[in-house]
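INTERNAL AUDIT FORM
Audit reference: QA-55
Scope: verify that the stored structure record matches its stored sequence.
Auditor: D.O.
Record contents follow.
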Amino acid sequence: MFSRIQLGSWSAGAIFTIAILTAFLLLTLAARLLIYLVKLLVKSSWSYLWRQGFANLYRPNNQTLTLVVSIGLSTALICSLFFIQSLLVRQAEAASGSQANMALFNIQTAQKKDVAGLALRYQLPQLQQVPVVSVRIQKINGKTVDELSKDAPGGLIWLYHNEFRVTYRDTLIPAEKIIEGNWIGHAPQKGEVPVSFEDGVAHGNGLKLGDHIVFNVNGTQIPAKITSLRAVSWNKLQTTFNILFPRDVLEGMPQTHIFLTKTPSKFTSAAFQEATVRQFPNVSIIDLGFVLTILDDVLNKLDNIIRFMAMFSMITGVVVLIASLHISKFQRIQESVLLRTMGASKRQIFAIAAIEYFFLGALSAATGILIALAGSWSVAKFFLDIPFDASMLVAIVLFLAITLLTVIIGLFNSSGILNKPPLEILRKEV
């Protein structure tokens, strides 16, 4: 119910709840696996300190399960925050880096060179100059739009009656990737034209590889065939299209052009826009730099919030870790007293505790990081729709830090037992 209130969706709340339960299950299985392997692998020929340290992991009243689950879940939450933060920051840097921050639309073919020359006068790069042609779909697999519209679901009517803006080229751009079929950059002299559809548009409208489509381009019918489907990254500042034609087909058709450039400052941007409007009044301009400035400001604030939440989660995780280890402290008081009574030194008892806490911390941290990797990948792919690229350096640092912290806090909890006479501790417990 809490997840439903926060996420605004029963399905999203259910997914989150199932993910948390899955994390608990995986951590429990990891703890059980550790206990099983320790019992199986420990040999009588090993050093007494190592045998005793490993035995603490499966002895009666052990805290292995509790500690692995609590430490592992804290690690998973902290690591997930760091991973997602780095993904968002990386996306923001990519959006405001070397990509275009100004787009000019509705450039006529006769104005292409003059617009490029004007940009050159202001020392602005020509990042992209893309032709745009308006087309309509007239037939699909031999059936006309009117015939298909009668039996089509409501969503497909848009496909039949919408006017598409398409482009043509012989290569793909970095924001595109072929996931089905083969990309053909030049049309054959005879026969159907090979075209590429964006994967979401194709599957969402019941289209597939091999479908035959007749396009209407300013009254001219162009028979085509879907030969490839593309995955398009829409979060990049590039000209991407739902339908892509090869070269040698649309060059002679009525078309306009899009010009993308990057201005170094607000003053250059304002001067270039003024000159463009005076010389080419039909050209529309979108200053993406202003949009990116707002986006950067929002993402910087989001970055600070994520950092605060990460620090808050770390503090919470430390509190949980201290509480869990403090509970386990009372389970081993009698054992430590017995060891001291039998003549064990403080150094030996410290070594036994260090071995136990090291493996508890290492297994908990490793399992938590693996859960964080899986969870962050799912968020990036299914919710943020961005490529996942985790920083292994962050994972390694967190692994070492949490393992070391577990050992330090565990030994600190044990120090009170070692600094007092055994009889005093037993009297206090009684």
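Auditor finding: record pair retrieved intact. The chain has two domains: 21-96+295-429, 128-261.
Action required: none
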